[in-house]
């Protein structure tokens, strides 16, 4: 398993990161433990979670995934073998700090509770799950709407969050700081304020990246190059849509789409793209899942690709993508499809 450096930390993380958000809803504790055992044996040293997990989020499943990781740490004693990432949830969920957005007191409260659930004394990479302002992630927006935020409150909020992150780093409760579902402008504000005030530097951004959503290829890619803020790519399979299992509106029993009541990535625009990628994989004798993950791994701004699976068969397939080298013909085919279907959602 190839290792990459996390930002400017000197910490080496596996290019495949084990995502955990199905544990506690789609997966049992025993299944989560088995996935961690297998991933560690396969050379993966990087696990990602969040206080909000399992997903789809609910008051009943809030924190369950961290608890499962915590019992594995206690059972195996493998905490020191893992680079552990978690996240503080943003606003909008009434069962998480009454639904308020990320702020200084909320960050501290979230960290303390996550440490308890995870049964550890520190979190290696702590991330803001989504900004406290309007942004294009999750909504599938076609443009930027500045009227969804209080402009005067944005920078003071960033500074407040960074101050508490600095306190937590000093206390040893978190080691490094990262962002998620963030934009280039937001990331640069965090970097600027951190440099001016000697506060923790952004080391990574966890954003969606896959055949259907490649926003990072534009301004964020340049930011990553100059500022060493690499991508932790989530949903490399577009939440499972690239497997084709949701084509035609299908919602197979037990899938996240069935549990959530639908998949936002499956519509009249996405289906032609998904079918084209599936056909390209078949033409070259590739598994479409492995082709999608292997493509992510070719990007120069990629620090790690986060995979998630509900079965051991899926997990083994996804991890196996690290051993796949895509030919020029495959890469050209991917680019041609993307240019025909650049905006699918």
Summary of the model, kept short:
The protein has 345 residues and is of the alpha/beta class.
Give a description of the structure.
- The protein is α/β, with parallel strands linked by helices and 345 residues long.
- It has one domain (3-240, 301-311): TIM Barrel.
- It is built from 11 helices and 10 strands.
- It has helices at 29-41, 64-76, 104-118, 151-170, 184-197, 219-227, 256-260, 270-283, 288-297, 312-320, 328-340, and strands at 3-5, 12-14, 16-19, 46-48, 83-88, 123-128, 174-180, 202-208, 230-234, 302-307.
- The strands form 2 sheets. The protein has an 8-stranded parallel barrel with strand order 3-4-5-6-7-8-9-10, surrounded by 6 helices.
- Helix 4 (151-170) links the parallel strand 6 and strand 7.
- The protein is globular and about 55 Å long.
Topology:
Blueprint: E1 3-5, E2 12-14, E3 16-19, H1 29-41, E4 46-48, H2 64-76, E5 83-88, H3 104-118, E6 123-128, H4 151-170, E7 174-180, H5 184-197, E8 202-208, H6 219-227, E9 230-234, H7 256-260, H8 270-283, H9 288-297, E10 302-307, H10 312-320, H11 328-340
Parallel strand pairs: 3-4, 3-10, 4-5, 5-6, 6-7, 7-8, 8-9, 9-10
Antiparallel strand pairs: 1-2
Helix pairs in contact: 1-2, 2-3, 3-4, 4-5, 8-11
């Amino acid at each position: 398993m190839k290792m990459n450096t996390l930002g400017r930390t000197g910490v080496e993380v596996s290019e495949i990161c084990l995502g955990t958000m199905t544990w506690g809803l789609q997966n049992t504790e025993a299944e989560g433990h088995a996935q961690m055992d297998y991933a560690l044996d396969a050379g993966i040293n990087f696990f990602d979670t969040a206080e909000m997990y399992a997903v789809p989020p609910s008051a009943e499943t809030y924190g369950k995934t961290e608890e499962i990781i915590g019992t594995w740490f206690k059972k195996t004693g493998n905490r020191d073998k893992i680079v552990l990432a978690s996240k503080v949830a943003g606003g909008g969920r009434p069962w998480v700090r009454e639904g308020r957005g990320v702020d200084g007191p909320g960050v501290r409260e979230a960290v303390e509770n996550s440490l308890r659930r995870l049964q550890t004394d520190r979190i290696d990479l702590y991330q803001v799950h989504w900004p406290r302002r309007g942004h294009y992630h999750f909504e599938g927006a076609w443009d930027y709407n500045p009227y969804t935020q209080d402009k005067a409150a944005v920078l003071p909020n960033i500074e407040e969050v960074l101050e508490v992150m600095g306190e937590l780093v000093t206390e040893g409760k978190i080691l490094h700081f990262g962002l998620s579902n963030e934009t280039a402008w937001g990331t640069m504000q965090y970097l600027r304020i951190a440099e001016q005030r000697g506060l923790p530097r952004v080391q990574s951004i966890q954003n969606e990246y896959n055949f259907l959503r490649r926003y990072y290829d534009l301004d964020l890619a340049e930011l990553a190059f100059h500022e060493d803020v690499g991508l932790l790519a989530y949903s490399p399979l577009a939440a499972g849509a690239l497997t084709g299992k949701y084509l035609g509106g299908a919602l197979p029993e037990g899938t996240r789409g069935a549990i959530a009541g639908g998949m936002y990535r499956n519509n009249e625009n996405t289906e032609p793209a998904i079918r084209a990628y599936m056909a390209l994989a078949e033409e070259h004798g590739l598994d479409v899942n492995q082709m999608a993950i292997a493509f992510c791994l070719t990007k120069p701004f990629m620090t790690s690709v986060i995979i998630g699976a509900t079965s051991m068969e899926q997990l083994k397939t996804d991890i196996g993508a690290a051993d796949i080298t895509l030919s020029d013909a495959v890469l050209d085919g991917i680019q041609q499809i993307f240019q025909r279907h650049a905006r699918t959602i």
